[in-house]
Amino acid sequence: GQTIAIVSDSDINTSDLTSFRSLFGLPTATFKQTETGTDPGIEFNNENTDEEEAIIDVEWSGAVARNATIDLVVSPTTNTTFGGDTSAMYIVDNNFAPILSDSYGNCELFIGTSGNAFYSNLWSQAASEGITVLVASGDSGSAGCDDPDVNDPAEYGLAVGGDASTPYNVAVGGTDFNDLTNP
Question: Given pLDDT bands bounded at 50, 70 and 90, which one contains residue 45?
Answer without folding.
Answer: low
